[in-house]
Write a structure and sequence with these properties.
With 369 residues, the chain is α/β, with parallel strands linked by helices. The protein folds into two domains: 2-171 and 346-368, Rossmann fold (3-Layer(aba) Sandwich); 188-344, Rossmann fold (3-Layer(aba) Sandwich), CATH 3.40.50.2000. It is 42% helix and 15% strand. It contains 16 helices and twelve strands. The strands form two sheets. The chain has a six-stranded parallel sheet with strand order 2-1-3-4-5-6, with helices on both faces. A six-stranded parallel sheet has the order 9-8-7-10-11-12, sandwiched between helices.
């Protein structure tokens, strides 16, 4: 069986890497050849959110657009089209429609986020929102034979639109994301995210400042888009995100942070659609963490055993106070988290779901002629 997987972004984007690219090998073992075709190249993706270079960016997007048009001529050799969110990150669903019509193949849509919820782009504002063509996600859901969904909230939405939904959480390869011995002289409290999620971490700055009166620790921040972070009394390390260093950035933490707050670019409905991926990464590497129990995050791990949930500033302070003051507890909770990860969030378990779904959709399409 041959599957064409299309995405807006290359494997350097987490959604493409963990929702599609990491399943190429496991699906091959299950008799499915999956080919990944991103709209943007790695170079284009790296330049996309940098200031300037508008003409170069536009020329690159034009090349990608016509490349997608040319690609429609060979879709017929595949048994199924797998769309990670959308085939092109802006505009209406042109290529999803073209590929289905040209190749006469069924489509499975992958939704790791609540892309059907309108939001304001933190980078491009109203222009970005207009180019997203909100409403496209609903049309894609209705035209899909099935959808793979990052959590049950997304699956419930998909089902209400009349499309079959399979919950496939975003996971990591637990052979790669795994615990290793740390040699931190003092505890490292860390956060790994993006410039758009950094405001959630900022909400914890007063708590972190207060903790310095009682505990000695280092705050490590990865991927914030900032060159430096100033919190009175807090020693901080600010690092750029790196694909090569991704696993190390998680493994070397003693305590993980996962705050989630409502913002202009992430309302409550949007946050409910988040897959809780950071929590799954912490679990895999055996790092205890403190998390906002928002949406599916309230159902990930075991509160008090693998992590602590925190809703108020007091909750955050008390949870971090306990973890920073007890190395043995950190080790125990990390071990429980790793065990929970191996039992619930492995690539193999999710590859089985994808394989069964793809084969079922292809067979059903074949029977309908």
């Amino acid at each position: 069986m041959k599957v064409l997987a299309v995405s807006s972004y290359p494997k350097e984007a987490a959604a493409t890497r963990f929702r599609v690219e990491q399943f190429i090998g496991p699906l091959r073992e299950r008799g499915i050849e999956l080919e990944l075709s991103p709209f943007l190249s790695a170079e284009q993706f790296a330049e996309m959110y940098k200031p300037g270079g508008s003409l170069k960016k536009a020329a690159g997007i034009a090349r990608s657009f016509f490349g997608r048009v040319a690609e429609s001529a060979r879709v017929g050799k595949y048994d199924l089209l797998f769309v990670q969110r959308e085939a092109m990150f802006f505009g209406p669903e042109i290529f999803e429609w073209l590929f289905r019509m040209a190749g006469r193949v069924p489509m499975v849509l992958d939704l790791d986020d609540a892309t059907y919820v309108p939001y304001a782009s933190p980078t491009y504002g109203k222009l970005g929102s207009a180019l997203k063509f909100f409403g496209k996600a609903d049309r894609l859901i209705r035209r899909s034979a099935a959808a793979t969904c990052g959590n049950r909230f997304i699956a419930e939405y998909v089902s209400r639109l009349g499309t079959s939904a399979e919950v496939v959480p975003t996971v990591v390869d637990t052979k790669v994301f795994r615990p290793f011995e740390k040699d931190n002289k003092i505890p490292v409290v860390g956060w790994v995210g993006t410039h758009s999620t950094f405001p959630s971490l900022e909400s914890l700055f007063p708590v972190l400042e207060k903790l310095t009166a009682k505990h000695d620790f280092v705050l490590r921040v990865v991927g914030s888009g900032r060159h430096a972070i100033e919190i009175p009394g807090v020693r901080s390390e600010v690092l750029k995100w790196s694909l090569e260093r991704e696993v190390e950035d998680f493994c070397t933490l003693d305590v993980g942070l996962y705050p989630i707050v409502v913002s202009s670019s992430a309302n409550e409905e949007w946050l409910k659609g988040k897959s809780g991926f950071k929590a799954i990464q912490y679990l895999a590497v055996g790092v205890p963490f403190v998390m906002s129990p928002v949406g599916i995050c309230a159902e990930i791990g075991r509160q008090g055993e693998t992590h602590f949930n925190a809703e108020s500033a007091e909750d955050w302070y008390n949870s971090l106070d306990i973890l920073l003051g007890d190395a043995a507890l950190r080790q125990k909770m990390g071990k429980s988290g790793r065990e929970h990860s191996l039992a619930n969030y492995t690539v193999e378990k999710q590859a089985d779901k994808l394989s069964s779904l793809f084969k079922m959709v292809a067979v059903d399409h074949s029977r309908r002629g």
